[in-house]
Amino acid sequence: MSKQCVKCNEPFKGFGDTCSRCRRMGKSGTFRECEVCGTYVAGFGAICDSCAKGEPDNHVCVMPVYTVPEGKMADFKATFPAFYSAVQKGPKESLYFGWAVSDDNQVICRQAFTTAKALLGQLHEVGVALEVCRTVLGEEGRVDITVSGPASELAQLRTHLAVLSPTFYELDPGSRWYNRGAAGPDTHLQVSPTYKIASGKVDNFVGLVDKFYQSSKTSTKERLYYGWARDGDTFYCRQGFKSAEGYLAHLQDVKDVQKQAIDMSTNGVEVTILGPQEEIEKLKASSDEALKRMTCHFFELDQGSVWL
Q: Is residue 82 a contact partner of residue 170, using CB atoms and an 8 Å limit?
């Protein structure tokens, strides 16, 4: 059975708590380039301590899910360019923006901001495009909105967005940014599982969240952000990766605690996955046990999606 080296955090098999490579390096390790930030540092492993620890993640993410009436998808997708154009003129505090489409007539607009104020400013910029979307949807279509972020930011949005009846998930303080995307095309994979927990087991699940944080330290290289959010007895994991390989590596990191979390969920686990087609296909072909136990909803990311 493999275990995690206390110095480089990489899995290894053998005796003691340090892998053979780190033992050969001695007490001070070696001088190398961090695989995440490119900085040269002395130490162990392929990632510097700063990148491994990340920084607090306080971003606000809004994900409206549009159910588009049959025969209207082409008209709905025709509104995407107007949104992309408006976003480029929007608040500087915008982080990423893009569209993703499923095979069952659903569309998600993935958008994130450093503050609630920036989100409200963006809504002003895309006002005309939103009206066109509503016209295309008509009375047959619907919109379901999820908003995740720190409690202080959500408090600024509840009144403004009340008419849309969104679900607000309050972000856990342990949430972290690891690798911020550079301005340009956005191809990151976002995975958002939702766990509905029986009222008598909520405290137990909170304990599992701590274990998730502790167990997910060796897949940092491919991870962009990782954190948990909560709405009453429903828990929401917000996580972004550079690739499907990064997410699958993470699932191996947390496989034991993930099994416990799935077992504890009352109605199974629903997971929304957004990303480029080639990354989605890798997940569909995966034999990972946890992934197969969850009900996955895949959305192919539009090529116009951007980091801002």
A: no
Residues 103, 211: one domain? yes
138 and 59 part of one domain:
yes
74/169 same-domain check: yes
Give residue-wise pLDDT tens across range 216-260.
Answer: 766 567 899 999 999 999 999 999 999 999 999 999 999 999 999
The total number of structural domains that make up the chain = 2
Q: What is the DSSP letter of 199?
A: G
Give the integer Cα–Cα distance in Å for 283 and 286. 5
How much is the pTM?
A: 0.84
- Could you tell me if 46 and 152 lie in one domain? no
Cβ partners under 8 Å of residue 279, min gap 6: 187, 189, 243, 244
Question: Which residues are CB-contacts of 174 (< 8 A; sequence separation ≥ 6)?
Answer: 209, 210, 213, 227, 228
Residue 190 token pair: 């976002």
Tokens 């709405």 — which residue?
231
Tell me which H or E stretch contains 285.
helix 277-285
- Say what the pLDDT of residue 3 is: 72
- 162 and 268 fall within a common domain: yes
